[in-house]
Every structure is written in C-alpha cells, then in structure tokens.
Amino acid sequence: MVKKTSVGIIGAGKIGKLHINNLVTMNEVNIRAISDVYIDQMSDWVNTLDVKYTTKNYMEIVNDPDIDAILVCTPTKLHSEIVIAAAEKKKHIFCEKPISFNLEDSLKVLDAVKKAGVIMQVGFVRRFDRNFRQVHEIVKSGKIGTPHIIHIFSRDPEPAPRKYVRHSGGMPFDMTIHDFDMIRYLTQFEVEEVYAQGSVLIDPFFEECNDVDTAVFTLRFTNGAIGVVDNSRRAEYGYDQRVEVFGSKGSVSIKNDTNHTVEVITKDGTLSDKPKWFYLERYNDAFKEELRSFLNCVTTGTEPTVSAYDGLQAELLAHAATISLQEKRPVKIQEVLKQTDLRLRDH
Amino acid sequence: MVKKTSVGIIGAGKIGKLHINNLVTMNEVNIRAISDVYIDQMSDWVNTLDVKYTTKNYMEIVNDPDIDAILVCTPTKLHSEIVIAAAEKKKHIFCEKPISFNLEDSLKVLDAVKKAGVIMQVGFVRRFDRNFRQVHEIVKSGKIGTPHIIHIFSRDPEPAPRKYVRHSGGMPFDMTIHDFDMIRYLTQFEVEEVYAQGSVLIDPFFEECNDVDTAVFTLRFTNGAIGVVDNSRRAEYGYDQRVEVFGSKGSVSIKNDTNHTVEVITKDGTLSDKPKWFYLERYNDAFKEELRSFLNCVTTGTEPTVSAYDGLQAELLAHAATISLQEKRPVKIQEVLKQTDLRLRDH
Amino acid sequence: MVKKTSVGIIGAGKIGKLHINNLVTMNEVNIRAISDVYIDQMSDWVNTLDVKYTTKNYMEIVNDPDIDAILVCTPTKLHSEIVIAAAEKKKHIFCEKPISFNLEDSLKVLDAVKKAGVIMQVGFVRRFDRNFRQVHEIVKSGKIGTPHIIHIFSRDPEPAPRKYVRHSGGMPFDMTIHDFDMIRYLTQFEVEEVYAQGSVLIDPFFEECNDVDTAVFTLRFTNGAIGVVDNSRRAEYGYDQRVEVFGSKGSVSIKNDTNHTVEVITKDGTLSDKPKWFYLERYNDAFKEELRSFLNCVTTGTEPTVSAYDGLQAELLAHAATISLQEKRPVKIQEVLKQTDLRLRDH
Amino acid sequence: MVKKTSVGIIGAGKIGKLHINNLVTMNEVNIRAISDVYIDQMSDWVNTLDVKYTTKNYMEIVNDPDIDAILVCTPTKLHSEIVIAAAEKKKHIFCEKPISFNLEDSLKVLDAVKKAGVIMQVGFVRRFDRNFRQVHEIVKSGKIGTPHIIHIFSRDPEPAPRKYVRHSGGMPFDMTIHDFDMIRYLTQFEVEEVYAQGSVLIDPFFEECNDVDTAVFTLRFTNGAIGVVDNSRRAEYGYDQRVEVFGSKGSVSIKNDTNHTVEVITKDGTLSDKPKWFYLERYNDAFKEELRSFLNCVTTGTEPTVSAYDGLQAELLAHAATISLQEKRPVKIQEVLKQTDLRLRDH
C-alpha cells in the first residue's frame, strides 16, 4: 500500500475549510493537523474530522517532523513568513494567492523555496477547471494558430463582504490576479504593459476603499498580441467566467456552466438556465483537482502546474494594474520590476 | 439577351399570390396571364403587376401559344384536369401539392406528363430550404453513415381556417404529406409500412371533420430503417420545423430559424428568440428558390428536384396514413397500391 | 449524532460495485455486509472497504438482525425471491430494475412488500438526473400546458456484452424499460397502448437472440396524448439521452451533457463537444442521488420517488412492447394485464 | 399613387453599385441618374438598369431640378464638397461614412445641411441589422439595467485590397468607425476618452502604411461606463460581428449569423456552421433597410436614424483613436475637439 501524504493546514477560514473538506474524500492523504487562531470555535466541525491535533500556533505544524506538506490558507499578510518558515523545514507548500502584496516579500519566498528544494504550488484554481484546461490544450495544439487577442470575462455575482474588501488589496489583487494568471496560462505569452480603466458603478463603498467595482484591463504582450480582462463585482445573473482566444487560424471560447441543459419554448421565447451562482458551484471539481495535482507533485517530485514563479508573475501584473488605475496611464511591467528584476531572473 | 420564360398562373388565392409576388422580382420570367374565378375582385393588386391579361377561364391560359409554363395553384380537386390539359398543350407545369386526392387521378397526370414529354414539378417547397438541403447533402455524403432512424417535427403555430380544413383531405394530406416527401428526400429510402397514432387534443372541430390535430406517424422503410413524423396543428410558440437523421456513424439535425440571435441573461435565466411564426416567414427564401429551380429546369430541359413521381409517392404514404388513422393498425404501402402498382412502375 | 443506516448488498457485479463505491462516500450509511457468489475473487477491492463480513449466501444478509436495508443487485431472475425473503425479515429494499421478467412474480413482490410495510425503491436512476428532474418540475408547474406529445431519445454508445445480451430479456427489458418509466415520470400519464417498430441494423447477433438493436416505440396514453421512444444500441458519438415534452402552451427539452463547453471556430466550421460517453459519466451524480434519496426514505419513513408500483408499471409496458415486436401490431396494456389486473389495483 | 422619390447616385464603385442594385428592387424610388468618372466602362451593367442618364460630372446631378435625393458614394476625400453643393441645391443626402477625414470639413458639412434644412443620413449600415437593432431595443427597455461594460467584436474575414488600404485613413477610419457608432447607438452614452492598443500581426504591409491590423480600443464614457472594441483585419473563419452589453441587471449579446442551423454529431464532436463570410452576406438585408429608412425620412420629413451629427461623433472617436495609436497614451475627446467644439454645440 502506498504511503499517504501527511498534511497540515494553516488557516481554517472559508478557503481553508473548503480544502479540508475536499482532502477528507481523498484516500491518498492524511490530515494530521489544523492551525487557526479561532480553532476553539470550530470544535463541532473538527470533531467530524479524523485529525491528530489542532493548534493556535502554526509553528507547531511547521516544526512537526511527521508532516510532509502544508497548505497555507491564512490572510495574505501572513503568507510569506509562514511559507519561508515551512520551506526551511523542508515542507512542500500549497499557498493561496497572492503570495504577498509586496514584490520583495514574494521574491524572498521564491528564494527560500528554491534554496530548500521543496515543491510550492500557488492557488490559481481555475487552471484545473476542465473548460479552461481544454482551451489551454487547444491553443497549445496550434488549432487556432498564434493567439492575437485574448478576452477574459470574469464577473462575480455579488461583492465580497465589506470586511474582506477593506484588506483585499483592491480589485487587481482580489479578482483580476486570477485572470492575469489565466491569460498567461492560456497564451503562454508574457505581458509587457498594462492599462486599466476602472469605475465605481455598483457600490460607493468601493470609492471609500479607494477601489473600483467595474474595470477593463488591456494588456500588451511582448510579441504584440493583446489581452483584455473584463471584471465586475456584481453580475446579477451569477458567476460569469468565460474566455475567448482569437488566433491567426480561428478562435476558441467557452460558455458558462449551468445547472441543467433544459430549454423551455413558449410564446415568450426560449428560456434556458443562467450561469452557476459562484465559485463554489463553478469550481467545485477544480478545487479537488487542484489538490490532487499538488499531492501528486509531492509524491512524484514533479513540477506543479502553477509554480511560485507563476504566482509572482501574476502579482507583477496586479501591481502594474494598480498603478495604472491610480495614475490613469499605461504602465510597463519593466517599470514595476526595477531592482527586483535581476533576482527574478534566477527563477 | 436570354429569352424570358413566359408564365401563366392558374389560381390566385393565397399560394398563387405568393408565387406571383415572387415571380415579379425575377428577371428571367415574364408573367403573361393570371386566371382565377374571383379575378374581378383583385383589380387593385393586378394593376400593380405588368400582366398581359387576366381571365376567369383557365383554358384561355392552357391554349395560349405564347405561354411556356403554367403554375397550377387552384384547389386540389381541379389539379388533375388542369395539369392534363396543360400537358397536352405541351406546357411545362408547376403544380401545388397534392396532385390529387385520388391515386388513379394522380397516375393519369403522370401518364399525361410522360406522354407529352413536358417538365412537371410538385410544390414541396421545403426541399428548397437551405437547412433541409444541407441535411440532404450531409446524409448523401455518408458523414453520418447509413440512416437508421429519422425524426421529423412539423408543427403549425395555429390551425388553418375552418373553411380550408373541411376540404383539406385531413392531416395526412394537408400537413404530413410535406413530411412524407421530406423523409424520402433526406433518406433516399422508400417506405414499406405506415402506422398512425392520432388524437384530437386542440380543437373538437377536427373531430367533427373526422380529422385529428395531433399525430405521430411511424414509418418502416424497405431496408428496416425507421421514420417518425410528429405533427401538431398548434405550437403556441410558432412554426416548429426540425429534423434529425440518426445513422450508423452519427446524427445530423437542424434547429428552428429565429428572427434574431439575441440572448438576454438576467436572474430569471437566459432568454433567446422563439421559432419564426409560420411558413411565410420560415420558407420565404425557399419559395423563391423553388420557382427559380423550376424555371431553370424549363430553360435547360433538366429534371426537376421534385418530380411528379415524388408527388405521387408522398400521396401513397398519405393514403396509407389515412387508412391507419381510421383502422388503428399498421398499413402496408403494397396494400394501398393494389392495381395501380403495375402502371406506377412505368414512371 | 444520528444513527447510521446499516446496509447489506446482495450482488457485487458491475452495478453492485457502483453502488458500494458510492455508499462509501456517504456519512449516513454503514456498509455491513456484501454477498456475491464470486466474492472470493474480489478480496483486493473488498479489503479497501470497511465491511463487517462478506458471504456467498445472501440469506446470511437477509437474516442479519443488524441490517436495516438491503440493495438487491443480482441478475434479474433472482430478484423476486430475494426481495420477498428480505421483506419478510422487515428489511427496506432497493432493487435494480426490472423487478422480474414475469408479471406474476413482480406482483408477488408488491404483495410481500405491502404486507411487510417496508420501503421498496426500484433502480430507475434517471429520475435522479438533474436535467430530467427539472423537466418533470416544469411539466408539473403547468408552464407548457398539458403534454400532447413526448419524445424520448435513448441511445447507448455501444451494445452491452454478448453474455449480458443473451439473458437481458430483450431491448424492451434492458433498455426501453428506463424510458417507459421516464415517460410516466415526466407526463404523469398512464399508457393505454404500445406499438413497437424494431430492426436489426447494427449487429446480426441480435437477430440470433431474437432481439432488435434499433427500435421506435409509439405509446398512446389514456387521455389521447402520444409518446415516442427512440432506442438504438449504438450511437457512435456517445450516450444520447434527451427528451422533449410538447404541450398545449409550449415545449420543454434537454440537451445532452458534455464534458466541456469549449467551442472552436475555424474555416472548417464550429466544433463543440459530443455527449458524454455512457451512463457512468452521464448518471454519475444521479446514482449517488438515487441512494441518498433511498436512505432518506428509510430514515424518515417516507415514500420513495420510484415505488415498486412504478417498477411494475414499466414492466407492463415492456411486456406489451415485446409482444408488439413479435406480432407486429399495436398491443393494449389491458391485454397484457388480464387476470393480474384485479390484484394490481390493490397497490 | 404615391409620387416616387427621384434619386441620383454619385460614385458607382463597389458600394455605389450595391446601393443601386438594392434601389432597383424598391417600388418607391426612381433612379434618375448615375455619375462616375469610370461610367463609360460600366455600360453593360448600366444598360440593364432603367436610368434616365449617366455622367462623369457629378454637378450635373447636383443641378438637376428633377432629383430629390442624392447618394454620395465616392472616395471619402470628395464627400464634403459634394454634400455641401448638394445641400445648397436643397437635395436630401445619403452619404457613405466617414463624412470626411477632417473635423473642420465635416463641421462645414453639418453647417451646410443645417442651413439648407435638408435631410442627411450617414451610412452606418449596421444600425439597420435586425440583431443590433434588437440589442438597442433591449438596452433601451431597461431589461439589463444601466450598461456598465460594452464589448464589440468586429473582425473582417480578410484585409481590404492594398489599393484601398493606402487611402483608407487607417483602421480607426476604415473599420472601427462603424463600431464607434454602434457603441453610441447601443448605449446612448457619449465617450470621454479613448485608449488604443494596436499591432501588426497579420501582414507587414500595414506597417508600411503606418497602420495596424489588430487592435483593441478601450473607451471611457462620461458616466464611467467602459467600452471595448476588438478589431482584426483577418478572421480566417469569416465575418465576426458580435456585441455584448453588460448592465446592472443582466447582459444582452448576439451570436453571429450563419448560413444554416445544421448540427452534425459524430465521434469527432459536434460540428455546426461558421459565421457568414463578409458584409455582403451578413448585412445584405441591412443595406436594403438602410435605404428604405432614408427614403422614408425623405418622404415624411422625419429625422434619419443616423444623422450627420452621429457621423461626426464617430469621426471624433476615430481621430482620438488615431492619436492614441500614434502616441501610445489615452486621449481625451476634449483634446481632439479644441476650437471646433463651440461650433459643434449648435448641432
């Protein structure tokens, strides 16, 4: 019988719980420990799990010699110190996005992971969605030729809670960063320049936070191809997650997933389903696939589908987009990189 | 300059007017004469046309040496005598469906046309619809292999006027005959047996007429393939005209035409257009194409896409279907043919 | 903590294994025992399960006082004796379809279950598919008015293994019975007459078995509505499972599920996915939902979504269809019922 | 009988011929004269028309007292002098887009038309496409709430001939101007700023012309809503013409028109038609509708659907886009307007 991977989870908020509930259904893994500052308030749920121990001190997990891999699901500001500590203890790491709000910190993470020789995967779950993956395969196959223009539509059904929004880092870091990663995943191109056009059209609260709720990001790739990301914090009909890649020989696109395929035709027209409600419904399978893929990399020692380097690249774009929103001008990636550039080339 | 075909139209009711209005837009034709018993009441419309003469006596058109081709658009009961007279005068003939309500009469028409060596086309307009034609081409190409099961959905948006229904010959002759022809056109198979299952679910008036308003016809082809025709006299959402051919290697089907491709997504779902309303909207282009094809056969002396023989075959199926509805049992085509069979083999 | 339902499974072939693997993921159930004549050859798989005991003698399970419910997944010919024995021991029963090949035997099962007052659910899994369920809800809501015509398309991607086909009871019992149940579920109508038109077009082996591989079944409901079932044992493109209900106010239909929503447009046309391959892919979730629903009925003492009575009604239609195939004529349900009719009225 | 509108056409190149061939089929119009510098080479075609006279000197048409309305279909550089001369002679004017390459000239045209009190319509044909019109109606109805983001996809199947490209004014004037007009038509919003991101990815010839072949234009409306135009000079699969308007309550979008609705399902997937080939196929009906609408305005003295003012607004955006492409920065409309602004306010 194959040895099970022993896992510790740091941070049992919304996303941490989601991962834990998925790990429970997987035979190849053993959940050894969970750490959270509010772990005492979760005893009902923890009792249904078969966990060795829980703790408020994440270092207990980092220092546990019987743990192979750690999932880092805390608020972003804690990511880098936890990941660096875990890497030093030779733990493999799955870290939610973004690695940090700060390029220097993220680079330190990359350095630590490289030095330790451990596997690190960043939580860009959409790469594991069967639709996006299929688009990736088709682009790679050459069926549509060289990509010329790529569009990503990514609209939430409703804004995140205000408490979250205040510390989310702004739209480029809490929403668009997923799309920036997707655009790199699908085209395999690197971005040269970002121009952001944003507005507050849904809720004035975002103005208070110096944030936007509606935005379009135009990207220029180094080869002249062009990318567009369309983001809204509220699509009343559900979670709108689509992409189109237009190339020299054709185009590939996806439609939204729906709950059923029923079509009703009456004198009022033809009525079919709307998109699934939100990421729990749409990316339900992708979240499982993401962990399975990570566990497989840990077991086989292979490169993860989303590396720490990918995480940092998406952060670069989020930084550029943030500057563009503030200064209302196109921003070159080179400008954001500045001194960190030289060190990034090592990765 | 190419000589224009000189045409006379006999019968200027709904369908006659439709054809005349289409002929007006075609450069290759000259409308010489129109005959109708009610022609005096149509002077406003006739005056907008550039017609040599009108008449109440169709024999004037039949005997006119300057007419090349005649469109027969009268009530069905007059078709055979007109067509036979026209054939004797060497006129090419376009005749609305069915040729007659009576196999013997239809056979006399075929005999007369053959003897005269003129072209005769029967008005199965759907063969000229771009969608059905494409299905025909795909089946013929072998892309879906050998047809195993074919479904035709053919539902009117509303029943024809009661005055018409009383003398329409019943559903098999006023609706299904189009589908019987289509099924032969698409499969290139011949039918061996018909079973009809019919009901009155929409309007009790059809019961008074000894007719049905809802029916399913199951056909067995000589090679064992199976056909299904679904007919309803009222689909509240419009003219439902679809087909699916399922074969050994795949299936081919069509969707209904709509007025526009707009899709509205709200919290109530995804709303798109319903089918076009009726045959004038759906087969608008096909009616023009039908005449263009006929005129081209007249000019070039080629075989029409819908021959008199095709007309008679569809009538055979309509007769079998009528018997099946009355006697509630499967009916063999052979049983309907009886003595006419030998003569039909000449065609 | 809620008491778990203790379950025994009789028959661990293809479908038994499928159910067991689904039960494993459910917290509300405890798999106590598995019986199968070949259980000795399954030790690898059994060892991964947490099962109290296995046995070759199903009576051990029937007599086990610590078992609440039994899943009967043996070949059909053993169903009735097992179900009757289990009912006498007050076990709740989930039985695969059909209950038996014989109306008398099935009636005995219904009698035994009624007398014992236990819950019995029959394995018509498609009622638990989200698409079909949605159609059921829409028809029930009255949105499309009264159903006039219902079509079911149900085509397998490839024939079942020959070994299975020889004892499957023929197409009406191994395929169409699912569609017969679906048609009753969706319309809530009862059938009066069945006409079957069948052929061997795919594999002559079916002729040897006195069976067909391609068939269309036309049903007449007691209220005059009409049903059509289209069955093929091989659709090269996958598992084709669709339905359309056409009613007085509109129509409702479903499309096939696909693996992804990707659309590729090139000069060759627009290419999208084909249907999922087979029932494991298409009804994966429905199989789980089916068991969850059964377990819920056991726990709460409510009526199952598919009762033994529903099972028997579908069998009646399968018997009528078999006679129709053999005698090539429409067959009344009344004719099949004969003496069993009176006893059936008790259920 | 209603008096026919007497029309003269100036310029009988590709688009002029298209309009003439459409006018021929309309009863409400009389084509009196055609002028073109190459008219002598068109005698074969002219002879099939029923035209009073042809001329190389367009002033003959301008001065003809028996002409009510003039269609201006010459190269763009001649538009303004012809339109101004025609307005002075009180002719109603249909002018192809753009009015001119120069804001001052276009303003002179608006002044002349206003002073003369004649009707002037600009040739933005897409406003007459049934799909776009339906989107316009739905946005206006409030069904999708207030527009937040609008996307226009507008890709040609192949580049225009090189001869044309050299004097087309560049992509913003020969392609995007249609989309700029559409975006104003659909949202009823005015634009504040344009940012253009363009590349040469298809044919280096465009670089020689100081032009681009692939571009994305991001627009900011005065109310904070955002617009995106996606343009390519070559979509190998055909004429890609789509739009999505996303609003506070939902979204509305259109799909491309296709030649047929056929769907073929085989083991290779589901294949359906690609978009129609080019504007002649896609906007065939819209071109007719455009002229019908113009003639109706002439007869009834009502405002045209596309006014000279609309023409000038689209030109403003094309100028801004051109500057943005050259200077690689967002450009405010206010900056382009400068001194012409005051005079524009009169219109």
TrEMBL record, chains A, B, C, D:
Question: Which keywords does the record carry?
Answer: Oxidoreductase
According to the UniProt entry, its GO molecular function terms are: nucleotide binding; oxidoreductase activity
Which residues does the UniProt record annotate as the domain Gfo/Idh/MocA-like oxidoreductase N-terminal? Answer: 6-124
Alphabetized Gene3D superfamilies for the sequence: Dihydrodipicolinate Reductase, domain 2 (3.30.360.10), NAD(P)-binding Rossmann-like Domain (3.40.50.720)
- Which residue intervals define the domain GFO/IDH/MocA-like oxidoreductase in the entry? 132-252
| Domain of life, source organism | Bacteria
* One Pfam family it belongs to: GFO_IDH_MocA_C3
> Is Oxidoreductase among this UniProt entry's keywords?
yes
Which InterPro entries does this UniProt record tie to the protein?
Answer: Gfo/Idh/MocA-like_OxRdtase_N, GFO_IDH_MocA-like_dom, Myo_inos_IolG, NAD(P)-bd_dom_sf
Query: Which parts pass through the membrane?
Result: none
Q: Which family does it belong to?
A: Belongs to the Gfo/Idh/MocA family.
Q: What is this protein called?
A: Inositol 2-dehydrogenase
